[in-house]
Amino acid sequence: MNKDNKTYSMSIRVSEEELSRLKLAAKLESYASYSEFVRRTALIEAESVIKKSEKDGIRNG
Asked: Quick one: which of 2, 8, 48, 59 has the most CB atoms within 10 Å?
């Protein structure tokens, strides 16, 4: 097992309506689970934000 490849868990709070929408979107996109849909969607958005900040010359810290 690679010690550098750790995984972390996180939780989010959503309303019942938001959860229903996430589940529906995951189903429509054929994801294995809504949590996988949320994870991948968040990573796509994170990458977009990082690229935009690099383009705009904004530095972290």
From this structure: 48
* Residue 19: partners with Cβ closer than 8 Å, 6 or more residues away: 34
- Phi, psi for 28 (deg, rounded to 5): -65, -30
Q: Kindly indicate the confidence band of residue 5, based on its pLDDT and cuts at 50, 70 and 90.
A: confident
Which tokens belong to 47?
């990458």
| 34 vs 41: CA distance, rounded Å | 10
Structure tokens, 52: 């935009």
Tokens in use for 27? 């189903």
Rounded mean pLDDT, 4-25:
94
Which H or E run includes 54?
Answer: helix 34-55
